[in-house]
Amino acid sequence: MLAAYFLYRYKIRHQGAPPASPKEGLIARQGAAAGVSRYPDDSHNPAIQTRSTLGNIITAFECGYLLQDTFALVWEARLRSRLAGSLKDQSLLRIILTHADKTLLTHHVGIGIALLILQHYIHGGRERGIHIIVQLVLMNSSTPLLNLRWWLRTYHPSLKLLCLASDLAFATAFYLARIRLVEWVVRGYGMAHGRNSAWKTYWEDLRLPCQLGTGALYVANAGWWTILISSIMQRLIRDLRWS
After folding, report:
1. Rounded CA gap, 117 and 41, in Å?
2. Of 182, 188, 183, 190, nearest in space to 40 by CA
3. How far is Cα 234 from Cα 205, in angstroms, rounded to an integer?
4. Residue 160: how many CA atoms within 13 Å on its side-chain side?
5. For residues 218 and 27, what is the distance between their CA atoms, to the nearest angstrom?
6. Which residues contact 153 (CB under 8 A, 6 or more apart)?
7. Residue-wise pLDDT tens digits, 188-219
8. Distance between CA 198 and CA 217 in Å, rounded?
9. For residue 126, what are the CA distances in angstroms to 10, 60, 227?
10. CB distance 68 to 85 below 8 Å
């Protein structure tokens, strides 16, 4: 995923993306102050207008991954139901509600549907914001450390220091890839309008649906990170007491 992203960045840099126009952004904000428009003009904002075949391929790959992983989660739920001896007596929906990882399944279904809609727009040549979407896909870069952490704690719980190192590495990667990344993306959008602050861009430039979506994503990730840090600290304190 990281390799694909850096390749995408290289291609964007050399394909002549529409240049950012801080002057036009300033004019747009002045127009908004005069009652002409509430939001800045994004017609020359590379974060919105940039198009990339490679970027489209990355989103299609992510969409396909979520679809196959959703199928795997449903199949796992069926296997759990079979082991519990209740497969014949329950509908598929009941099996999913009873045995599936509902948090992960909700994530996959929600993001997967959004990416399917994006593929429809790409097919019609009407996609926008691919640059932002590909950057947000980088949130998955913390997943390998999550898997390593699970593997160590499941099969090698006696390796306390290594487990702690994986906890801290994952917590750091989660913070950078799922919290700070949101700030960097918003700041990158605002720079095309002469702003250098993610927070000012969020409150003054983003449209309401973007504010709601970005805010919900940021708050949810910050909440999960807080829970993660709390669990790491509790486990560390417990290990120190028992050592």
Report:
1. 24
2. 190
3. 40
4. 8
5. 30
6. 163, 166
7. 999 988 889 999 999 999 999 999 999 999 99
8. 15
9. 23, 15, 39
10. no
Q: Which amino acid is at 55?
A: G
What does the block give as tokens for 217? Answer: 């994503």
In whole angstroms, what is the distance from residue 109 CA to residue 105 CA? Answer: 6
Which single residue is written with the structure tokens 């396909």? 64
SS3 letters for the chain? CHHHHHHHHHHHHHCCCCCCCHHHHHHHHHHHHCCCCCCCCCCCCHHHHCCCHHHHHHHHHHHHHHHHHHHHHHHHHHHHHHHCCCCCCCCHHHHHHHHCCHHHHHHHHHHHHHHHHHHHHHHCCCCCCHHHHHHHHHHHHHHHHHHHHHHHHHHCCCCHHHHHHHHHHHHHHHHHHHHHHHHHHHHHHHHCCCCCCHHHHHHHCCCHHHHHHHHHHHHHHHHHHHHHHHHHHHHHHHHHHHC
Question: Is the overall model pTM greater than 0.85, yes or no?
Answer: no
Q: 146-201, pLDDT tens digit by residue?
A: 999 999 999 999 999 999 999 999 999 999 999 999 999 999 999 988 889 999 99
d(Cα 232, Cα 225) in Å, to the nearest integer? 10
**Structure tokens that stand for 109 in this block:** 């279904």
Q: Give CA–CA dist 153/179, Å, rounded.
A: 25
**Rounded Cα–Cα distance for residues 49 and 41 (Å):** 11
